Amino acid sequence: MRKIEVIPYDQRWTSMFEKEDVILREIFGFEIIEVHHIGSTSVPGLHAKPIIDIMTEVRDINRVDEFNKSMVAIGYVPKGEFGIVGRRYFSKGGDFRTHHVHIYKVGSPEIERHLAFRDYLRMHPSEAKKYGDLKEKLAKQFPYDLPSYVNGKESFLLEINRKAMDWWRKLDNGFRC
Question: Model-level pTM?
Fold first, then answer.
């Protein structure tokens, strides 16, 4: 059974992402449009589970399955859509998970949602701190109960996602630098 651990921000998370970015680009080659570091480990100062979340934009989502053997060769487990239509999901590290890769076709609304969430927390450190504090509290309260940990974050995440998307849309309307 996997223990839920939330730890202080670790600057090594950026280099761990960068290393994996290079490997993914080698595997997927021309299919990749962009690779993004997302999730809590991509927000400086945010307490997080030490799992690097990577979002990859590809030209053709249907071709991703052709790369499953190459992903397995570097330690990833292909999990198909894993609950989100139009996504391909991979995890690495088994019970001691180190990385998640979420792959979407360029233009998927999920891309915008993830980037808005990440950038909103980067630009609003007080919100990031509230989120980190909540995750720490829930990890202590439910160290071996992932569904309860996830459910405990749900209402806060919905609110942050709403704020992030509102903020993102305002940036899209001419305020983005």
Answer: 0.93
CA distance 75 to 91: 8
The CATH number assigned to the domain holding 75 equals: 3.30.460.10
Q: CA torsion 21→24→30→33, rounded to 10°? A: -50
Residues 6+ apart with CB under 8 A from 123: 167
d(CA 172, CA 102): 24
For 30, the domain range is 12-175
**Contacts with 46 (C-beta within 8 Å, 6 or more apart), sequence order:** 9, 40, 121, 128, 129, 131, 132
Query: How do residues 17-76 score in pLDDT, each as one tens digit?
Result: 999 999 999 999 999 999 999 999 999 999 999 999 999 999 999 999 999 999 999 999
Whether 129 is in a domain gets the answer yes
Q: Which two tokens stand for residue 152?
A: 């405990």
For the chain, the domain total comes to 1
* Local structure of residue 2 (DSSP, 8 states): P
